[in-house]
Write a structure and sequence with these properties.
Elements (H helix, E strand, L loop, with lengths): L2 E8 L7 E10 L2 E9 L9 H7 L3 H4 L5 H8 L7 E4 L2 H14 L7 E5 H8 L8 H7 L9 H19 L4 H8 L1 E2 L1 E4 L2 E3 L2 E2 L19 E5 L7 E5 L7 H10 L3 E3 L8 E4 L14 H11 L5 E4 H6 L8 E5 L1
Parallel strand pairs: 1-4, 4-5, 11-12, 11-13, 13-14
Antiparallel strand pairs: 1-2, 2-3, 5-7, 6-9, 7-8, 10-15
Length: 318
């Protein structure tokens, strides 16, 4: 089985703003090459929500090459290849829109989306996100790092093909009810679901109770008013707010003078410039500078607080 897995991270809401790419080359079912490049977007505008997802900041790419220079290094991996991506509609769109921005003519290649593949093949999953599927497959990786995401994407296709006992990607698509996508100099056709899979996985999804029933400290957030900014990786915003309230705290939708904790998905908060912060984080920083007792936590620090105070514990179901 031969293919090329790719993953892009973008600086802002525009698809033509890639700031990194990960590429994994698979030959004969084995990873033979791994590449990762930081990319300087033509428009050096980074949105806080994007920084919160992948952690890449303007200072990290200011000396990086723009896409045309990176393309010269990677373009030979694409012609007449099978390209694999998770949520391929995003990554293929980034490639197409960026090529359009720089007047680059893309070669012909077919592609398959492992998110749609997993959705049809692994029945019963709560969703088909990259981390959800790979957690189900017991594959650990660093999410939202372009190279590791490309490796995780590769893992899904390899596991599906292994279970189906075929190394033919077209056959994998046919069995799982997918139509392969295609890109050439004239345009593209999307990878789509044409119906239910002929065969589905024998692997059974089970609800991982250990992630949802913990001996937490029932007073971990006592007297705290907690506000969240950015998307959490470990749980939904609603679950996080429920957790705080069940552990003795209160939650808010915006930062006010009553806020005592702001939880952000940003890492290395102290190194952020003001324009890289979300509105809530800027407001919390301003209150803190004026003397308000407000603690800024990243997601990992927030999760540690579940156990951080002495007192009775109990099993919490989310």
């Amino acid at each position: 089985m031969d293919f090329v897995a790719i993953d892009f991270e973008t600086a802002n809401e525009k698809r033509n703003s890639p700031c990194s790419i990960g590429i994994v080359v698979v030959k004969g079912g084995e990873v033979v090459e791994k590449l990762h490049y930081l990319i300087r977007p033509q428009e050096m505008r980074f949105m806080p929500i994007n920084i919160g997802i992948h952690g890449i900041r303007p200072a990290m790419v200011k000396d990086a090459p723009e896409f045309p220079e990176v393309w010269e290094k990677i373009k030979n991996y694409f012609p007449n290849s099978t390209v694999v991506a998770h949520n391929a509609s995003f990554d293929i769109s980034v490639l197409r829109k960026t090529a359009e921005l720089y007047d680059i003519e893309l070669p012909s290649f077919q592609y398959i989306c492992t998110m749609k593949l997993a959705k049809n093949f692994y029945l019963g999953l709560q969703d088909a996100k990259l981390n959800t599927v790979n957690d189900f497959l017991d594959y650990k990786f660093i999410h939202h790092d372009a190279l590791y995401d490309a490796l995780a994407c590769s893992n899904i296709l390899l596991k599906v093909s292994e279970e189906l006992k075929t190394t033919d990607i077209q056959e994998v698509a046919d069995i799982t009810g997918l139509v392969m996508g295609y890109v050439d100099c004239k345009g593209y056709s999307s990878c789509s679901l044409k119906g239910r899979a002929i065969r589905t996985s024998n692997k059974t999804y089970y609800y991982k109770r250990e992630n949802n029933a913990e001996n937490y400290n029932r007073e971990a957030f006592k007297n705290e008013v907690v506000v969240f900014t950015g998307k959490l990786n470990s749980m939904s915003r609603d679950q996080a707010m429920t957790l705080v309230r069940r552990l003795g705290g209160a939650t808010g939708g915006t930062v006010t003078k009553k806020t005592t904790i702001l939880v952000t998905n940003m890492k290395n908060i102290q190194g952020l410039r003001r324009e890289e912060m979300s509105t809530k984080l800027r407001k919390a920083t301003d209150y803190k500078a004026k003397g308000q007792d407000i603690t800024l936590l990243n997601e990992e620090e927030f999760l540690e607080m579940r156990y951080s105070r002495t007192g009775p514990t109990y099993t919490l179901q989310l």
